């Protein structure tokens, strides 16, 4: 039997930027997105999250390339550990806040799902993950990485 696991704890960090900082414009984020190559499953997760958000009357979240490397890095960490976690979220959140001039950062993680729909449905059915998906965010980045055994790890960062 296929065992599905996901962490039911989602973190929301309320971090404030300095008044001298400005946030990236949507045009800048879209331009950055054009320079980042994401996989088909990563695109599917983004599309499904946005479909869900629209169905709930929420705005879509744009791909934020500045967060992509943080998501990839966290997946690599989880693969090395052999388990999913929110380890080092405060550091990741702080670094993303500085680099993207974000006010709020949150993340969802998952493991052992074989499809984008599977992980997104699990997040929708988890109150903590669902709350993150429904949060007041402008940008997101999703990384899906495969370990040596073919197990998929998911990290999705949301920020505003």
Quantity of strands, as a count = 5
Radius of gyration: 15 Å
Write down the oligomeric state: single chain
**What percent strand?**
15-25%
Question: What is the 3D shape?
Answer: globular
What structural category characterises the helix and strand content?
Answer: alpha+beta
Uncertain ranges: 1-24, 28-33
Q: Share of helix among residues? A: 40-55%
Mean of all residue-level pLDDT scores: 83
Question: Which strand order spans the largest sheet, edge to edge or round the barrel?
Answer: 1-3-5-4-2
Distance between the termini: 39 Å
Instruction: Please give the count of helices.
Output: 6
Sheet of most strands: 5 strands, mixed
Order of helices and strands: EHHEHHEHHEE
Could you explain the architecture of this structure?
This protein is of the alpha+beta class and 160 residues long. The protein has 6 helices and 5 strands. The protein has helices spanning 26-34, 40-55, 65-81, 89-100, 116-124, 127-133; strands at residues 11-14, 62-63, 104-111, 139-146, 152-159. Strands 1-3-5-4-2 form a 5-stranded mixed β-sheet, with helices on both faces. α3 packs antiparallel against α4 (89-100). GO terms for molecular function: peptidase activity. InterPro entries: CAP_dom, CAP_sf. Residues 1-24 form the signal peptide.
